[in-house]
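Archive entry. Fields below.
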Amino acid sequence: RRGEMAKSTQLIDNEVFRAYATYAAIVLLKMMLMSLITAYFRITRKAFVNPEDTASFGKGESAKKYLRTDPDVERVRRGHLNDLENIVPFVGIGLLYALSGPDLSSALLHFRIFTGARILHTFAYLIPLPQPSRGLSWAVGYSVTFSMAYKVLKTAWLL
Amino acid sequence: RRGEMAKSTQLIDNEVFRAYATYAAIVLLKMMLMSLITAYFRITRKAFVNPEDTASFGKGESAKKYLRTDPDVERVRRGHLNDLENIVPFVGIGLLYALSGPDLSSALLHFRIFTGARILHTFAYLIPLPQPSRGLSWAVGYSVTFSMAYKVLKTAWLL
Amino acid sequence: RRGEMAKSTQLIDNEVFRAYATYAAIVLLKMMLMSLITAYFRITRKAFVNPEDTASFGKGESAKKYLRTDPDVERVRRGHLNDLENIVPFVGIGLLYALSGPDLSSALLHFRIFTGARILHTFAYLIPLPQPSRGLSWAVGYSVTFSMAYKVLKTAWLL
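PREDICTED_STRUCTURE:
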């Protein structure tokens, strides 16, 4: 029994699953990086949203002026939200896709293109690059997730 | 060894897991659809948030007037955020629930009600339908996720 | 065949996976709780964002005055978004970590610290506690997820 239980957790020995784990971790870490960039801009631009965050700048009006929005902070936050909207479906559908028995080469193609597209998307958003850089990188990542969802539904379909 | 490894990835052969994969993919695709609807309203209402997105409308003041919020765009964005807040817990808790060994019929009941409720929620938000349509469809989906979490905690509890 | 299939879904019998399921369900339920707190403040502060939500307060101007933002509502919403930004990576990376074969004691340490940190973060945000309470509890949770990602990448790395 113990042997069987151990075996059933060895998903991580499967090559497609290892590739999924690698790329899912990378894109989730990339998404987490957005929090640090937001914090960096909030501190350097002195633009906060919670009164308790400005207490170290003194009391009253002197601190209150730092409760403001800043275009750079808002831009990073939009990039972060866009990551949530796109990386969450990738991680969820990608897991099901990895378990649906794709070829390693097809799986790597999907994971690599998605990850590359989302890294480009972040640069396109933060620099910012002229359009359609951001739009195209978004569309490429979106299409990859859609393609994986198609494979999942074709393999698993049970309504 | 190879045979064992392959076997351990055959979760997708399990009927409850197949049902989970089907419904999780459907609700994640529905959530992704919100991005397209937002883009549609941004373009048709000419309401953008990034200066680089309005460059094709010309330079200076003529483009700047399209950097504005639009009630329809904001409505879709709220629906999208509500999806993130509710579909993410469903996908995460639903995976654990599917692995906790429920009957296929119970699992299908949970997955179908959640998916139906979230589709209704989207229509109720975007049309919009009078309340309590949106509130009720939200509450039904919320309760289904809660019920699955109860089963997961009852089965897996190890604190 | 049937026996094998059943076996492959018995992840829930693995102790590390059971611990993961328990803590993932707890933090996802905690995140879902933010929706109820938002609803509570919207109703008690009478601060709504959708016109159809104020219909029960009458028609025209008398209802329109409740379409407003409220500092308490906005605070809960920021806490909710922060949960999405941090709990989603924990749930995703934590699953991969649980499947990467960690010791039960290491796994429990990671899961317990993260869960404790996020519960503290919520109290720090909602009360609010003076900084650096919220900042520190955020950083602790962030570091735990980072540590799990390191283990996942070290175990699974296949680029």
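CURATOR_NOTE: Residues 1-158 of chain B form a domain with the Four Helix Bundle (Hemerythrin (Met), subunit A) fold (CATH 1.20.120.550).
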